[in-house]
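Data availability excerpt. The first of two example chains:
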Amino acid sequence: RFSQLDQEQNQSLEYAKSELAERHSLVALLEFFLVMYCKDLLPFTIDEKILRYQHVKYPFDLQQLAEDYLQLSDLEEDIYYSLIDIDFDKLEHATEFFFFPESSEHLLFIIDLSISGNLIHGLAVTDQGLYWKLPLQTSHKVKFTDILKLEIDKACLIINDKYFDINPAFNFRFRRFLQRMALLNYGDTKKRN
């Protein structure tokens, strides 16, 4: 009886591995096609650097992945890559208004979206999910493994029916980044189970 259960579990694990490999292949193919053949058709540029992640096995530098996908250096907003770099008052605002990470999460970056630069509005991305608060909105948290719906609506990004907007170019790139991170975290979750 135990050998039958072991065999069924192994078959289930093999199916999950093949499903994950298929998803990785489809994402890689789509990204290659968009970057190489659709440059003139896309509303915003996608850097060719994202192609370096097609066949690289995780773990790799997730902050560099974010930079390559999102072109963060082109943003006008203040960006922080480490909690140590953030002024204490700003960090206190962020953790009071929108950034509520679990102890196992590692920060990739925080973008200050507040007009006054005090980090009461912003976007925080960790290795496991994202947290954001926009003016006149409540704060939101979405784990990458919980992303069910990503769509662009009038240049704004809708994440699981929650409104997100920095600017049209960032939103467009952020959607691709979220798809990649969801795929990485999906595989990581399967390994842990």
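And the second chain:
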Amino acid sequence: PALQMEAGRIYMLLGQSDRARMAAEHVLELEPDELSGYLLLADTSRTPEEVDAALERLAGKAEQFDGDAVFHAALAELHLRKRELETAEAALNRALEINPDLAQVHQTLGLVYQLQGDIDKAAAEFRAGADLAPDDPRVQIKLAQFKLQTGDPAEARRILEAFVERLPESGMVQLELAKLDFKERQFEAALE
């Protein structure tokens, strides 16, 4: 199962979610109580049918994995894909009850709040996630994107520039800064 899981992760990185899904299914055939198999299954679920099937399988393990924050975060991601915001919010809050130090969970909760139109709560969760993972470019980029989407491009730029100053080798963040520069030039050109 460990080798199958590693293959599944590699397939996901290569954008081959069908093969990753087959690897997850194989893991679950061999080890029906292997949490990582369910997490990979959730990650690979794209179509409405796949999401429904993954939700059904994960729901069957809810009691067994109730104390696992990552399990609840995976459930939330699936509910979010179905736009079941209240259910996703409840699962994310359960995950944070178990482990309040998961930056990605805070940011996913921020997205849920943003989709619900509660920008103040969204901002607090995006910031909490960024504070928990100051050296994770993905987390910092999400905060900057949130700031940009909510009309604060100067703060988005400040977040990205501060990150590059601390960790100049971060190509991801430098790319986001380049995108921001391009958008600003487009906006200025449209005003002319």
